[in-house]
Amino acid sequence: MRLRWTRAKGAGVAEAVYVAVVGPGRDVSPDLLVEAEDVGRLLAREGCTVVTGGLGGVMEAASRGAYAEGGLTVGLLPGSSRTEGNDFLTVALPTGLGEMRNALVVRSCHVVICVGGSWGTLSEVALAVRTGVPVVALHGWQLPERLHAADDAVTAVRTAMALVSDQL
Asked: pTM for the full model?
């Protein structure tokens, strides 16, 4: 199933599809970084805006993949400076909120794709589940409640697109 959301001339931002890609910012295996980059690339091909916490690791890899495809990448940064964002952000928004910016990442999106797991990632997954934002877990936290598991980037993006189409 290939769904394409692109902004037509005169269409507002309400029609855009926003997907958060969350995961560890450091100590990430090379294989997980490849998966995250593939997720970003595939989301950009679908016309989605990729939203991350804007730092390194999974966030940078997903941004790099989307950026390479000409996609829009938004980083909601924990600190007060745009310079802390990774090099693949189209938009870098310093929040000054530290880890509390995780709520902004989750609530700004239609669906969350979790790539791998860390404590910060778990907080984003918990916030998403708690607020009804669908979560697709790719090699991440396997929690019993309302998570959709995926074994690879293609399955993760297809599942996310199906969940978004249910919302629209």
From this structure: 0.84
